[in-house]
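Thread title: Can someone regenerate the structure for this chain?

I was given the following input by a collaborator and told the matching structure tokens would be attached. They weren't. Posting the sequence so someone can regenerate them.
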Amino acid sequence: MPEFFSAPAFVLWGAPTSWLEVVAAAIALVMVGCNMREIHWGWPLAIVSSLLYVFVFAEARIYGDATLQIFFAIVALWGWFQWLRGHRADGIELHVSRLTMRGALWSLVACAVAWPLVALFLIRFTDTDVPWFDGFATGLSLVGQFLLGRKFIENWIVWLAVNVVSIGLFIHKGLWLTVGLYAVFAVLSIAGYFAWRHRLRPTAAAASALEHA
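Best answer:
Regenerated them for you:
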């Protein structure tokens, strides 16, 4: 990583903010804006932002989120393909849909299982001091990323939970610019939900099913 990126850009509440964090945050904001508008270019921006945040989070010893960013970069390729070429099980072009009751239940189960599994992994194999908060954000992000890639509107609800918990996590770590970023993300999660709700087709609820995604 070039020395310029690791150099402090400014100081917030006594904590230095690197140029790396500034650039990663700016790209991430543009990415979310693209997601809200169903613009597929948000996915390559997600790859760039995620790779930059690997270094930001690793330096702060938030290893779950750091590893998650590598996963995001890989899954973003899948999400980009889904938005460009993806279809529902019935062959209809991928569009904003709601989960069925069964799909919502499976999503809740996935969140409930992923959280402790990630947290226990972090406790066992890293020196993180925030395994449960880091595990929550990491585990639920895996579910949120899948729902986003398949254009299920519930992804915004998952991201809202992730963003709210992440704010507390980053306050603890002194990543103040990222705290502000995730506060904006939390607001955008709500805005994204309502933006996508307007894009729902009349038959979307009946057509969507997680088990056939």
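Strands lie at 8-12, 15-18.
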